[in-house]
Each structure stands twice: as structure tokens, then as C-alpha cells.
From TrEMBL:
The keyword Nuclease does not apply. It is found in: Secreted. Residues 151-255 form the Ig-like domain. The keyword Transcription regulation does not apply. It holds the Pfam family IGFBP. It comes from Physeter macrocephalus. This is Insulin-like growth factor-binding protein-like 1. It comes from the Eukaryota.
Amino acid sequence: MPRSPVLFLLLLLLQPQPAPGLGLRGAGGQIPECNPCRPERCPEATRCPAPSIAARDECGCCARCLGAEGASCGGWAGVRCGPGLVCASRTAGAGPVGTGLCVCAQRGAVCGSDGRSYPSVCALRLRARQVPRAHPGHLHKARDGPCEFAPVVITPPRSVHNVTGAQASLSCEVRAVPAPVVTWRKVTRSPEGTQVLKDLPGDHINIAVQVQGGPSDHAATAWVLINPLRKEDEGVYQCHSANAVGEAQSHGTVTVVDQSQYRAARFPGPDDHM
């Protein structure tokens, strides 16, 4: 049976009406009722850590900062994350209840068209908004993952000296993308006087070589250990690194003092004049 227009109008008027100004916050909670905008009542403006992602509050009245990557978010203050970021929960006990950190929705480092590596595509986009724009798309993602670069020696080997029978070690730290191949060589001279590089450990039973990743990202640390030291182990040692982009090397010197001569020089006889 069709409803009468009067009955339909009566039912419509009895429906609960939403309060003005109520809406949904990005985190899923309700925002307070918005009153007429009065800028003079807004909190004093603060300088945003990332000025290019400043915004207005939920009512579109007062200026506020959006959280940059790594900033705290959530909680009673309702700090919102910037574009492309999400508020991820902290590890239990790492911060106030209900708070989190702004993280990029797309994880992983990227290589920018400027040849620089960025920790995330969000960091790249933030940089693109901050630098002068030569033309649209002047700074964009070139590829996923960090940019490739030739090896760079971060910590060169330090020269050492010790006596025969003791031990000596050299180390060097290298950074590169893709990961470099790091080797140790001893620099010698041929009878004709030309430089000769001998790969280590070779047939030296008293020399060991080790390479492992770290301690920082895209880094490798290499060691050469000589134990026990012999007089013939004295010389220049080269830390050589290479990848598809290029190569680098650095040198350290090992000086070996004969133990008998060291003792004689350290403990003079009773008839020696000081």
C-alpha cells in the first residue's frame, strides 16, 4: 500500500540529524564541533620542521604543522602525518599510549634523478617540494634502492709496528653500491724495480684475511691478521675494493723489529753508558 506524502514527511523529520561540524579525523576519530573561524584565537604560529607540508586544522581555520617522516603522531593532540605518510604504532613501552610515528607508506630506499639516495620515496617527494622547480618532474625517483656509486674508503688502514713473534693487524672500511669485493695485497718490488702486488693470504700460513658487512649501511670492513710476525712480513699492505662502478684502494705499513734487538735496546748491559 503506498505511503501518504504526509506520513513520509513526518518520518523524515523524526530522523536524528548529525551535529554541525562533525567529521572524521585521519586516524578514525571524531573531530570537535567547528565554530566560526576567528584567526585571532588561533595558537601562536610555530615554524614547522618541514614548512612545505604545513596545513590547516580540521576546521580549516588555524595553521598547523603536519608530521614529517619520523615525527610523533596520534595521541590526544591528534597530530596528523604529512602526505604519503601513515601513523604507525610504536613498540610497546616506547612512547605514550595511543601515539605512534609517521612512516612512509612505501618502505625502502630510492635513488633520485639527482643521483642522491633517499631513505624513502616520501623523503624524495619532500625534497622535490623544497628545492626550486626548474620544470615539472625535475626531481623524481630514478629507481628503487639506493643509487650506485664507486667504492669510497671511509677508514683507511693505520700503520702498525711490533716485534717478531708478536702479531699485527690492519683494517679498512669501505662503502659502495653495489657491495664491493674487498681484497688485501702486499706491495713488493721485482728484481727489476717494478711494483708487484701479491694477493693475501696466498701461501702464508701466518696470515689470515676476513671481510664482513658493516658497521654502517652499504659498508664492508676487511682485516688482515699476521701472527706470528716475521721480519719478512714487514712492508706495505694495500686494501683494494672494487664494484661495477669503480674501485679504490688505501695503504698501511707494517714495521717489524727483531725481538733480540728490541730487548738489547730496551735493557742495556751493566757496562753500557746511558
